[in-house]
Amino acid sequence: MNVKTLALALSTLMTGSVVAQNISEPTVPELHAYKVFHHAEYMKKTAAQAGGTNVLLHTTTLPTEGTDPVVTPALDHLYTKAVVDTTNGPVVLELPEVSSDRYFSIMITDQEHYVTYDEIRPSGRYVFVRHDYQGKIPEGTVIKSRGDYPHVFIRTQVKTPEDLENTLAIQKEIKLTGTVGKLKFDDAIQFTLDTHDIYAQNQGILEQAQGYNVENHKAMFQWAGQWFPKNVKDNTGMFGPIDSTEPRSQDPRVRAAAIVGHLGLPVDHAYYTGIFNQCDGKRLNGDKPYVVTMPYTNNLSEFWSITRYSALTRNTLPNAQDVYNAYNTKPNKDGNIQITFSVENPNDDTYWMPVNAGEPYYYVERFYGPQVGKVITTQDFCE
């Protein structure tokens, strides 16, 4: 997808333009094609940026300038990613041991946008092979893929700007060994059908969406712009394997809506909320200051963060404080933190998160290693 088309789609998604007001309910094949098309096009772009398949692509700076290609980018870790290519046999990933006080994770996503493997603080050798591979497999944790092109996504925590050099040092120890190739196709749907063994549960669905193209994808972005804010409050059911037991995980609309947070984690690994509205239901907008409250110490084993994004770009705001976490805040006398979203600095005991006058925005709460069902969010304080 070209940049102009993507920008239009993202703007429509978050602003709910007039064009999007009459989008009909999509069919199951359209919902499935929406995921597959987006993920395939993303992989093609990522492989090109990396210099080929089986080549690691590191982000080395936090995406604070509002131009990151990942929508709703996290500011609490750096990414290491690669399009793994198993067409020439096993591919080996080597990961360093990381200290227990730093979040470090691996996530594998297949070509139908299901998370097939995730782990916090992995280390050692991981071997990727197709599930029907018959040759010799090197030593290591074996990850079998239904397709030729599983996607590996590694997150390495950055606690503060001063901590960045430590994260970069960890990235340099990550190694991927496999035959370098190129990812080329014109039809994302046919490419997936040709290179990935479709799950039994989805047999025949994607074939019905053959011919799905950029224009169809723009329309699906518009549908998501209507459906997501009204029906989704967190990532429950969006990610995880095809047989996930998370509530709503078998609803194809929820799975398709996951593309709004493409390459997100299952809820037992990370709990995300996407907050678009105030407690009274009105859309968050820079014209009015808004204060949120959350416990500083929450029910999780790793860490939390709150990040604000422009609803027009689905990205950060340049030259502005975008993220707060346990490393750059302290609790108040009640054991909570409070954040004020406003144009002007409130100059009080709350933490200031700048927003633009007249512009809609949203914020995402990320809780890593959550006790599912026990995390207290800013929305819980609405009650």
Task: Identify the notable features of this structure and list them briefly.
globular; Jelly Rolls; 383 residues; signal; DUF1254; alpha+beta; Immunoglobulin-like; five-stranded antiparallel sheet; DUF1214; 20% helix
Give the end-to-end Cα distance, rounded to a whole number of Å: 42 Å
Order of helices and strands: HHEEEEEEEEHEHHHEEEEEEE
DSSP helix count? Answer: 6
Major pleated sheet: 5 strands, antiparallel
Strands side by side in the biggest sheet:
1-2-8-4-5
Question: Which descriptor suits the 3D outline?
Answer: globular
Keywords: Signal
InterPro entries: DUF1214 (IPR010621), DUF1214_C_sf (IPR037049), DUF1254 (IPR010679), DUF1254_sf (IPR037050)
Domain DUF1214: 271-371
Domain DUF1254: 54-177
Entry summary:
The chain is an alpha+beta fold and 383 residues long.
What does this protein structure show overall?
The chain has about 375 residues and is α+β, with helices and mostly antiparallel strands. Among the domains are: about 130 residues, Sandwich (Immunoglobulin-like); about 110 residues, Domain of unknown function DUF1214, C-terminal domain (Jelly Rolls, Sandwich), CATH 2.60.120. The chain has six helices and 16 strands. The strands form four sheets. Strands 1-2-8-4-5 form a five-stranded antiparallel β-sheet. The termini are far apart. It comes from Vibrio ouci. InterPro entries: DUF1214, DUF1214_C_sf, DUF1254, DUF1254_sf. Keywords: Signal. This is DUF1254 domain-containing protein.
